Amino acid sequence: MGKIFVMDHPLIAHKVTMLRNKDTSVKDFRELVYEIALLMGYEATHDLPTEEVTVETPLMVTTGRQIKRQVALVPILRAGLGMVDAIMRIVPAAKVGHVGLYRDPKTHKPVEYYCKLPTDIEERQVLVLDPMLATGGSAVAAIDFIKKRGANNIKFMCIIAAPEGIEVLSKAHPDVDIYIAAKDEKLNEHCYILPGLGDAGDRLFGTL
Ligand code: PRP
Ligand code: URA
User: Fold this and answer.
1) Which domains does the chain have, with CATH numbers?
2) Would you place residue 13 in the very low, low, confident or very high pLDDT band (cuts 50, 70, 90)?
3) I need a surface site. Which of 36, 81, 197, 207 has the fewest CB within 10 A?
4) Is 110 in the pocket of ligand 2 (CB under 6 A)?
């Protein structure tokens, strides 16, 4: 089974509370998603492999460590886009793939409309980004595509997760660690997360 990491940090908790607030503006929502993703990115990269290198300081030659495995970010469109810049800020050499999925409003099943991934994705640590893990259908489908292209080091980062989605994702992809800012109570009859924050894509892009 993959590991589940639920963030336990006062700054993340504070920002998630602001994100949930229905009166938070589009601008603030976008900034909060960025800030939460940045803080989570530190955690999700804690086990990136490093190698020893030599470095010359102004005073002497010494050894240090540098990242050995390159990173690929794969936001699930649309809402995952809101987390990309934050992780790029701390892993600037990361390549970025995109998987386009939307949930059919009636069946709640993911429908694919786009997939473009870095050609060397199998060599990279892949971070799949989506603020919401509800039924888990979108995350499972996105990771299916990414694995078909040969990736085998995959983590999933989300801001809000429902218990149902965590179970579905960890059963379908037991090798994938999941990083969550807040674990919520349940899904409602429309498969929205409760208490949640509403529709992440609409709130991020102002399409309510
Ligand atoms: C949202 C969200 C996830 C998905 C989660 O996207 O960003 O991708 O729903 O739900 P699931 O776990 O039940 O699959 P949505 O389908 O609303 O598309 P959008 O980002 O384009 O708004
Ligand atoms: N997608 C969202 O954006 N919000 C939810 O609560 C569930 C799926």
Assistant:
1) 4-205 (3.40.50.2020)
2) very high
3) 207
4) no
